[in-house]
Amino acid sequence: MLEKPNIKVLDKVVVRFSGDSGDGMQLAGNIFTNVSAGVGNQVSTFPDYPAEIRAPQGSLSGVSGFQVSVGTGVHTPGDQADVLVAMNPAALKRNVNVLKQGGVIIVDIDSFKEADLKKALFNTGEPFKELGITSQVVEVPVTSMTKAALADSGLDNKSVLKCRNIFALGLVCWLFDRPLESALHHLKTKFAKKPAIYEANAKVIQAGYDYGHNIHASVSTYRIESEEIRAGHYTDINGNTATAWGLIMASEKSGRPLFLGSYPITPATDILHELAKRKDLGVKACQMEDEIAGVCSAIGASFAGNLAVTSTSGPGLALKSEGIGLAVMAEIPLVIIDVQRGGPSTGLPTKTEQTDLLQALYGRNGESPLAVVAPASPTDCFTMAFEAARIAIEHMTPVILLSDAFIGNGSSAWRIPDTDEYPEIRPNYLPKNMMDGSWKPYKRNEDTKVRYWAIPGTEGCTHRLGGLEKDYDTGAISTDPVNHERMVYTRKDKIERIAGNIPELEVLCDKDADTLLIGWGGTYGHLYTAAEEMNKNGNKLAFAHFRYINPLPRNTREILTKYRKVIVAELNTGQFADYLQARFPEVRIERINKVQGQPFLVKEVIDGVTKIMEGK
Amino acid sequence: MEETKYTAANYKSDQSVRWCPGCGDHAILNSLHKAMATIGVAPHMTAVISGIGCSSRLPYYMNTYGFHTIHGRAAAIATGFKVANPQMTVWQISGDGDGLAIGGNHFIHAVRRNIDINLLLFNNKIYGLTKGQYSPTSERGFISKSSPYGTTEDPFIPAELVFGARGNFFARSIDVDLTTSQEVLVAAARHKGTSVVEMLQNCVIFNNGIHNHITDKDFRAERTIHLRHGEKMIFGKDSNKGLVRDGFLLKAVKIGKDGYTIDDVLVHDAHCQSNFLHQQLAMMDGYDLPLAIGVIRDVEGLTYNEEIDHQVAEVRERKGFSSLRDMILAGETWEVK
Asked: Cβ B81–A281 below 8 Å, yes or no?
């Protein structure tokens, strides 16, 4: 172990890598994350990239960032960074405001020439002064050191420059005492098919690490505490991959083959990518001609007897509305994944929001109830995708899973579950004794109101479904007014009865506080951290987080009415608050809202809650 | 037609048929029931999937698995169904509005993918269920409720879309011609891949007689030609007319006149890979050249669903994962003890 002066021991640190969108910041950040997870840290990441694939080089619009928090008690990627790596002036300008007081900035000073400063719209030749930076700036000649390290490599200049990110990574690894062997392992996997590029990166990461060692007198380094974690096998996982895997688990647990009908859309496409790879587990993932065909092929696959899924983001969910209505009417299992992004319309395709809640709940013609669930974190995407599939299959209904760009792209370390940690999923199959040709397709289990599932290809239960209203008993087309109303209430009742098959709402933090903070979906990490910090500082606060949105957990009223103040914090203008207010008029719901395409900062939540608490 | 263990009655549901009296759909339904008995696939191994429109009510009249879905989307739903449950024989029922207007995109992509379904396109050149608007197959200038001064647009010719989407099977029949209808439906079912059958169908209420210039008994023999693979392209009441090559085009001639003999008359090759001649045959409209009925193109190709199944089998065999956990553990992981 190298001797390191100025060691700061911290329970967690936040590092933000930033550079041009072609600079490989996501790769550097990902490797740092994996290496940290490998030494037993909790990790939480926030890739923040522009919608343009390659904006003009060096420009402000082309800045790509990757923020990661590592250590113990990590539930968010952090509000502010302890260390900011800025590969050019534009990255510095864009990110300087996320640096913590007393943080360190590492810049590639080789890319701070006059022309570079101009591209980032600096007015003077003194960027640090112009931005009013008082923090420590470590000026590292990343470009020239990378070139020097690869002088004999035989690589062309362009390929050499592509290794700059890894020099910076090497330096950061030294700063945080990360084992290089592990980083090398990840690089080897990444460049498995390009041994020459791997060799170059291996050389450069060592050079970056050594550079850190050689300048150690001038910069403080960090030791990060690791947490005792549950034994088992771990992997680093992002929310979209976790979603895909949760569906595969549900397929294994239900015995129904998995089908995905989808169409590429940011930020949900990675789910299609992952499931397309999983032909090795028998998954059939079809890239269809449009969003509508995505949901419709899934509807066909569901009728045919598969666990059928379609994945999309907000604009795609709008296009799928009519199809989802058909699945409501035909009462077939269907999972619709909406990885929410900033809207309306094309909006902010790469940024996060929770603005599709009302679309998910109500965005169809007619009385069209369905189940809605929302994962709380990248790893929770696995559990909630499984739950979405379980509810869809056991209750013969479409289920919308409301993920978002933040948890979909963000990642954490995840303990790979044993197969028996998840329950069996029990499809409501048509019982054998009813397969005598007399069965009618809308006959229901009277306890759950769930109709039976007869898989095509089975003898004795041919039947016809459709979007037209059907007779409650015979399943034939019916326009009878009273029958229609009965069917409307039956479909509603069926969804409400799901509440008996989902867990109750839990209250976290200080249950005995007067004030309850409420969140739903992907904001869990920030809200939980905020609540913990408030309690630590003597401000009592209870916290409840909803992952089941429709129906709500059966004890929701009981919990909401217990507190003097109830505050809903969400990344929209108050959609969940309105939804709760309409259901529980006796509770006065206060609100904290943010609609900037960015996750909450813990500080924003604390300020918001404090203000409401003090407001009396 | 050959015998199987099923009769037409086995494919009929107990629902009373609600189409208008005299509608061409009755005859097509009849042909379909009979064709299914000939094909011999059990009712419980058959699925009939439709969109929206008069013709799309058809699944309710079948004693098979059936799904009456939403407007235009039957092809996408049938595609997902077939991929998910490839043992089933899948029929899609769409009208010209359902299949070629609102569902035009799904139609061409189903044909392009060559998903193994039988796609029946009921073409009456009108919107019937919404009471009489022009459709994407209505002729330019056609007067309807939504085109009171005549349309100002050209129609699709379904066959042209099929060939444009690289289709491998195209057949055509007329609602009242039960024999030909059964023949092409059986051929469609036996062809692997997307089999498009255009059914010229009469809407007795809103577009009565739209196909009369072809279907009228008095001149049907002169204005249509029944194509059969391997047989001479001969037509006419007295079977004395034939189709011959005329440069790059086709020409109708009288055999024995102007020096044309039976040897000059073309032999139909539905299995020819090139669709050049198939297109010309399918584009004949009953005016200068007789409208072609029967199987015009029937060529083998890789089907979407089978290729997915092959790929799944191949990748599973190669990677050999037994479960999700097995797959994840084969990737980048670390152990905490």
From this structure: no
Q: What is the pLDDT of residues B140-181, one digit of tens each?
A: 999 999 999 999 999 999 999 999 999 999 999 999 999 999
Beta-strand relationship, A99-108 and A136-140: parallel
> Over A510-570, what HEC string results?
CCCCCEEEEEEHHHHHHHHHHHHHHHHCCCCCEEEEECEEECCCCCHHHHHCCCCEEEEEE
Test A279 with B315 for CB contact under 8 angstroms.
yes
User: Which residues sit opposite B134 in a β-bridge?
Assistant: B126
**% residues pLDDT > 90 (chain A):** 84
B295 found inside a domain? no
- Comparing CA positions, the residue from A579, A574, A575 lying closest to residue A591 is A574
Task: Count CB atoms within 10 A of the CB of residue A53.
Answer: 9
Q: What integer pLDDT is reported at residue A51 of this predicted model?
A: 77
* Residues of B with Cβ-Cβ distance to A323 under 8 angstroms: 70, 73
Q: Tell me if A375 sits within 8 A of A549, measured CB to CB.
A: no
If you search the block for the tokens 């696959």, which residue do you land on? A301
Q: What is the domain-level CATH number for residue B179?
A: 3.40.50.970
What are the tens digits of pLDDT across the range B42-63?
Answer: 999 999 999 999 999 999 999 9
* The residue to which tokens 């300048």 are assigned: A215
In this prediction, residue A6 has a pLDDT band, given cuts at 50, 70 and 90, of: low
* Structural domain count of chain B: 1
Residue A337 CA, chain-centre distance (Å), reads 12
In a domain, B304, yes or no: no
pLDDT at A7 (0 to 100): 67
Q: Which residues contact A392 (CB under 8 A, 6 or more apart)?
A: A307, A333, A334, A335, A371, A398, A399
How wide is the angle at C-alpha B289 spanned by C-alphas B288 and B291, nearest 5°? 125
Chain A residues in contact with B335 (beta carbon < 8 A): 232-234
Please write the tens of the pLDDT for every residue from A420-446: 999 999 999 999 999 987 899 999 999
Which chain A residue's Cα is nearest to B57? A466
């509770």: which residue's tokens? A587
Largest Cα separation within chain A, whole Å, is 86
Which domains, and CATH codes, for chain A? 7-224 (3.40.920.10), 239-421 (3.40.50.970), 432-500 (no CATH), 507-614 (3.40.50.920)
CB–CB contact B60 A34 (8 Å): no
Nearest to B296 by CA among B273, B313, B279, B310: B279
pTM over 0.90: yes
B59 and A464 within 8 Å at the Cβ level: the answer is yes
Look at A284 and B59 and tell me if their CB atoms are within 8 Å: no
Q: Which two tokens stand for residue A338?
A: 């909406």
Domain membership flag for residue B196: yes
Find out whether the peptide bond into A344 is cis, omega within 30 degrees of 0: yes
For residue A238, give how far its alpha carbon lies from the nearest alpha carbon of chain B (Å).
13
pLDDT at A577 over 50: yes
Q: Return the top range by mean pLDDT from A305-314, A406-415, B13-22.
A: A305-314
Chain B residues closer than 8 Å to A297 by CB: 76-77, 79-80, 83
CB-CB neighbors (< 8 A) of B303 in chain A: none
Q: Rounded distance, CA A166 to CA A567, Å? A: 44
Q: Which of B136, B313, B52 is nearest to A466 (CA)?
A: B52
Domain membership of residue B280 (yes or no) is no
Mean residue pLDDT of chain B comes to 96
Contact B80 A233 (CB under 8 A): no
Q: Sorting pLDDT into bands at 50, 70 and 90, what band is A1?
A: very low
The residue segments making up the domain with residue B135 are 8-210
Kindly give, in sequence order, each residue whose CB lies less than 8 Å from that of residue A110, ignoring residues fewer than 6 positions away: A141, A142, A143, A144
Which tokens in the block code for residue A467?
């979007």
